[in-house]
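ARCHIVE CARD
CATEGORY: sequence design from structure
SOURCE FIELD: tokenized fold
FIELD CONTENT:
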């Protein structure tokens, strides 16, 4: 609920502002320190949790399959780097807190981008994905696997960055997150919103100026032996998945495609 509502008197707006509170937690999606702070904030008790992410699996259109493949491949490979939000979701349910996600599905990311940006990103995907096989055959599997990861990531990030930095109004990702937080405030007085650190400033700007927002930036305890080891293990898992996927693609192309060319 926005405190800017003209239907309320100044005294009522002031009282409503005092009652409503948003705890905005910026995070590095791979940071265990941020995850621990999020759990600590939830232990204090919340009425609603807003998470950056998708509420449900999308129904992809016939021309959107490339994006489904690209985003699926990217998160399959990079999955070990991300800290799961399942604990936060279960904690919210245990507290009977309302649960909100910042987008209905991943298809929103694609559909909110202008047609030209979607075409350009699709062009990059269809050029880079098959080229990764040629890179591997010419320069080696390490270079080929790296190019495969880029073929997933660059088209997806092009659309996501455009939606955040250049899209305006209701299609801007930060604006959409801010609206989702205000939606949660319509029926709750205490909201914990967790967003990526790259979105935190934009979300702050999207919220009403006189709303009580407690901003928690990303948390860093500095380099520790356990932290370095944990990140190294997760990087190894990521690259293992990447090479397994790439070698499977390379084997299929060499054995089932090239013989017919």
């Amino acid at each position: 609920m926005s405190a800017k509502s003209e239907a309320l008197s100044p005294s009522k707006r002031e009282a409503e502002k005092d009652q409503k509170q948003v705890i905005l937690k910026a995070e590095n999606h791979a940071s265990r320190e941020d995850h621990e702070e999020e759990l600590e904030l939830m232990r204090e008790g919340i009425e609603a949790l807003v998470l950056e992410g998708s509420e449900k699996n999308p129904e992809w259109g016939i021309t959107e399959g490339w994006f489904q493949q690209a985003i699926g491949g990217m998160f399959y490979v990079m999955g070990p780097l991300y800290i799961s939000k399942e604990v936060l979701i279960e904690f919210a349910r245990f507290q009977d807190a309302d649960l909100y996600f910042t987008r209905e599905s991943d298809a929103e990311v694609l559909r909110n981008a202008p047609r030209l940006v979607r075409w350009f990103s699709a062009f990059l995907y269809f050029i880079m994905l098959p080229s990764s096989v040629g890179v591997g055959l010419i320069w080696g599997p390490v270079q080929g696997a790296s190019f495969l990861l880029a073929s997933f990531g660059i088209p997806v990030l092009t659309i996501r960055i455009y939606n955040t930095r250049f899209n305006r109004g209701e299609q801007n990702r930060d604006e959409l997150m801010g609206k989702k937080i205000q939606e949660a405030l319509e029926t709750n007085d205490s909201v914990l919103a967790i967003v990526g650190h790259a979105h935190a400033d934009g979300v702050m700007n999207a919220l009403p100026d006189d709303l009580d927002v407690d901003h928690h930036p990303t948390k860093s305890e500095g380099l520790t032996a356990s932290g370095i080891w944990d990140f190294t293990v997760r990087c190894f898992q990521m690259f293992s998945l990447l090479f397994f996927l790439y070698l499977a693609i390379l084997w299929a192309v060499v054995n089932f495609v090239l013989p017919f060319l």
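CARD ANNOTATION: Strands lie at 21-27, 48-54, 98-103, 190-196, 212-216. The first helix runs from residue 10 to 19.
SHELF: design records, drawer C
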